[in-house]
Amino acid sequence: MEHKKYTVEEGNRIIAERAALNKALGKISINNSFDVVKKYAPILETAQKDGLCLVQDGDGFWYGKSPFKIGDNDRSFVVNTKRNVFYDFDSAIGGDSISYICNRRNCCPKEANDILIDMFKLSKEVQSPS
C-alpha cells in the first residue's frame, strides 16, 4: 500500500484539523499532536535514551559529541534544556526532539512522533482536562 506524500503545509493543516476534531470529541490524540509529544519527550532525555553521553556545563546547557557526524570535537552537540532544543555545530542540524529523531533515524516527523511515543511509553490517547 502506497502512502500519499504531503507538503509540510498540507501536513500541518491536516494535523490542525484532526486536533480540532479530537478536541471537539473531548480527546487529544498524541499521534496527531506534536506539541504534546514535545512536552513529554524533552530533547535532553531523548538524546540520552538514544545513547548520547552528555555533560552539563552551565545552567541548562549540556554538551557532547555529534550524533550526526563523526568529528573530533567533544562539545559540538549542545542541548539547551530551558528552550528544549538542540544544535549540532559539526552538521549544522538543530531543533526539538522530533527533528532529532528525524535526523538520527532518517524518518519523517510522523514516524519520529511514533518513535517518541514508544520511547517514552506515552499513551496513544490522553483525556483532555474538563
What is the molecular shape? globular
CATH topology call of the domain at 41-123: DNA Primase, Chain A
Question: What is the count of helical runs?
Answer: 5
Number of DSSP strand runs: 7
Along the chain, the helix and strand elements come as HEHHEEEEEHHE
Strand order of the largest sheet: 2-3-4-5-6
Structural class: alpha+beta
Which strand-content bin applies to the residues?
Answer: 15-25%
Kindly state the mean pLDDT as a whole number? 82
Whole-angstrom Rg: 16 Å
CATH architecture of the domain at 41-123: Alpha-Beta Complex
What's the level 1 CATH class of the domain at 41-123? Alpha Beta
Distance between the termini: 39 Å
Q: Would you kindly provide a written description of the structure presented here, covering whatever features stand out?
A:
- The chain is α+β, with helices and mostly antiparallel strands and 130 residues long.
- The chain has a domain of 83 residues: Alpha-Beta Complex (DNA Primase, Chain A).
- The chain has five helices and seven strands; from the N terminus they run H-E-H-H-E-E-E-E-E-H-H-E.
- The chain has a five-stranded antiparallel sheet, covered by helices on one side. Strands 1-7 form a two-stranded antiparallel ribbon.
- The longest helix has 17 residues.
